[in-house]
Amino acid sequence: MTPTYYLLLSALLFAIGAVGVLVRRNAIVVFMCIELMLNAVNLTLVTFARINGRLDGQVMAFFVMVVAAAEVVVGLAIIMSIFRTRRTASVDDANLLKY
Amino acid sequence: MLTAVPPVELPEIGGASGAASLAWLLFVLPALGALVLFVAGRRANAWGHWLGVATVLASFAVGLAIFFETLGLDPGQRTRELHLFDWMSVGSFTVDFGVRLDPLSLTFVLLITGVGSLIHIYSVGYMAPHDGGDDDHAEPGGDSSRRRFFAQLNLFVAAMLVLVLGNNFVMLYLGWEGVGLASYLLIGFYQDRPSAATAAKKAFLMNRVGDVGLAIAIFLLWLELGTVQYSEVFERIGEVGAPTLVAITVMLLLGACGKSGQFPLQAWLPDAMEGPTPVSALIHAATMVTAGVYLIARCGPIYNLTETGRLVVTLVGVVTLLIGAIIGCAYDDIKKVLAYSTVSQIGYMFLAVGLGPAGYALGIFHLLTHGFFKAGLFLGAGSVMHAMNDDVDMRRYGGLARHMPITFVTFGLGYLALIGFPLLSGYFSKDAIIEAAFGQEGWQGWVYGGAATLAAGLTAFYMTRLVLMTFFGEKRWENLKSDDGHDYHPHESPVTMTAPMVVLALGSVGAGAVLSGIGLTEWLAPSLGELQESDHGVLPHAVVPWLVVGISALGVLIAYLVVGRRPTPVERPEPVSFPVRAARRDLYANAINETFIARPGTWLSRALVYVDNRGVDGVVNGTAALLGGSSGRLRRLQTGFVRSYALSILGGSVLVIAAMLAVRFA
């Protein structure tokens, strides 16, 4: 088992997530890209835990999952309410909070 | 040359017991009276004035008790101090709130509370609300104005007593400012008159100039000696270097000039006559304006050490006594003539205390007799105004002697005392000063003595003129109406007014003989040192009284020829010769103040305002505008475009990581 591959995969996933956040307009897709980035980070944590033979990275991954789950609940609720009022889920249209 | 002065022995200071331990009552009683009258409001209208009278009378009684107790002591033990509480204590700076009971302060206590009581009683009648058609003293607010008047008068008495009783310079300053405040309030008492408001402001401002001097003197003493207690300051004043000593004395003198209406700060005192007449009598003739004399006499141990300091005091006195006497000859306003007479007489006192140990006691002596006769004269003038619809123009008076006999007789006695009629009080005190002035050696003897004698002649002239125009001659008021359209009905004043006038007239007659008979100078010696008489003067003592009486008689004669023998025109004659014109305009004192102090001051403040608006405000406003403008532009970064924020976050993270890597691998 070569940890490098895991790390490369994780970097790739993170990059895809980041690009997705930047270029996509649909809030649901942006949201999924964020989840993708979080999971890329989880993969890194687990990999390093494995390399070092310690458990703290794994524990940290669990924490990230819990936080991500909570974030999904709140985030989806917000997206739902935006969609209901504006009949769209485009992040570019929700731009009232500015100068 | 001024004679060199051997250091005066300072008295031993004992503790206070017996009546003296109640000394705090002296100023607490009037202060309480003032507090009650101010706080009780309209409820006190009915009895407030009697409370005011009662507190001052009680204070007088306490003063008398302490005085007689002190008389029973050995002269060496007559200086006592009563510590009340620690007033301030900051680091090494401590100020006691303590009372110094010595012959000097007790003399002042009796003068202030004694004359103060009489004038309080007089005011009950003078400030009474409307009792007939011809009385215009009831000001807006009706009855409550008399209560307010008594509250302020009580406040004045309390502050004046703190001034003379304090055992340190800070308490002196407290009282000094207190009497200034009371004086301000009372000059502006008729608050609906713009002239009264202006006069009050003028008095306050000119007093501030003097007060700054006094404050600087106290700072210097603290800086040099680290104490403001009289006893310690006078004991160690010899440690102070000569230049600083002169600075201290000159600054003290500046304070004294401001409070006492002396040159160059004399212009406020005549304007202060805008206040009610009892105020003029008590504050601006008998007590407050003599605070400057008290200050210099009290600081005798300081002045003894510096000839220059004393010389300046004497010169101020000489200049002022001439200025006051000259201007007094030209005015037609009865109160202003008396005011300039006060300025001139206080000039005599300054001349006396400026002579050092040869004159301190004489200055205080004249202060006491002056307190009697000048207060009496002012009360008499108030009585005349009371009868004449508050008119002060002597050209509208005339022939009043038959209509108000008590006022005429009491005023006449005060007049004779002031011009130094033999054996009346002014004769003893003023002649003693002129003798001491001629007792100096060289040019100083001639200048001081000559000026004082000349002013005595002028005094006789203007006072005779005043009496002739007011009480004799034709009744010029018969065909005139007062400014408010009433006829004049001169009448004698009520008994609350005449009784104090009678008492003060008795004082004017007897005070001089009694005080010199019972040995005022010996009584004051523990405070002021022994009176030193000079034998090397330019004129022998025996000649001086004849000279002064002769010159005064000449002044009376000239006044009779100029004023008494000729009818007095009701309208002021114009044009007149230059000296009269100058005197009518206060020898241009106001114009000089205006040109040399007020105008440059205005220019300076305008320039400062310009600098402030353009310079200081420019910097402040510029900074604000710069920040506002730049943040207005920075605000544009908040586009509300979420993905651009995300890009910024990513860019930022990349930069941070790049920086960390760079540090790690560099």
Automatic annotation (TrEMBL), chain A:
The question of whether Ribosomal protein is a record keyword is answered with: no
What organism does the UniProt record list as the source?
A: Pseudonocardia humida
Q: Which UniProt keywords apply?
A: Cell membrane, Membrane, NAD, Oxidoreductase, Quinone, Translocase, Transmembrane, Transmembrane helix, Transport
Select a single GO molecular function from the record's annotations and give it.
oxidoreductase activity
Show the Pfam families listed in the entry. Oxidored_q2
Q: Which reaction does it catalyse?
A: a quinone + NADH + 5 H(+)(in) = a quinol + NAD(+) + 4 H(+)(out)
This chain belongs to which protein, by name? NADH-quinone oxidoreductase subunit K
Compartment(s) of residence: Cell membrane; Membrane
